[in-house]
Amino acid sequence: MVIVVLSGIVGQAVHAFALRALNDQRRRFQQDGLSDSDIDSRLHGMASQEEAFRIWQAIHTPMTLMFLAPTVLHVAGMLFFAGFL
């Protein structure tokens, strides 16, 4: 569970950084006067890394949900048996 949490935190930070870098690079290319097709071809590598993140996210999200249900049950059980519910 710790690995899933840590990978989620690191993944979100890396994703935010990658999107910011991709958008900044796109703006620079637009300011330089490149056409949209030239910009897309130059940013293809960065965009494919973004696609790799989407694959990671498709794996990470179900794992997070898989841990969420037992965690909620655990907390509810703890509260019940401690006399708070």
Short description:
This protein has 85 residues and is mainly α. 88% of the residues lie in helices and 0% in strands.
Descriptive keywords:
85 residues; 3 helices; 88% helix; 0% strand
- Please provide the count of β strands: 0
**Mean pLDDT figure:** 87
Number of domains: 1
Beta-strand content estimate? under 5%
Number of contiguous helices = 3
Structure classification: mainly alpha
How much helical structure, as a percent, in the residues? Answer: over 70%
Query: Largest beta sheet, briefly?
Result: none
Q: Name the shape in a single word.
A: rod-shaped
Report the order of strands and helices.
HHH
Question: What's the Cα radius of gyration?
Answer: 21 Å
Residue runs with pLDDT of under 50 for 5 or more positions: none
Give the termini distance in whole angstroms: 26 Å
What does this structure look like?
The chain is an all-alpha fold. It has one domain (2-81). Helix content is 88%, strand content 0%. It has 3 helices and no strands. The two termini are 26 Å apart.
How are the elements arranged and paired?
Blueprint lengths: L1 H30 L4 H7 L1 H38 L4
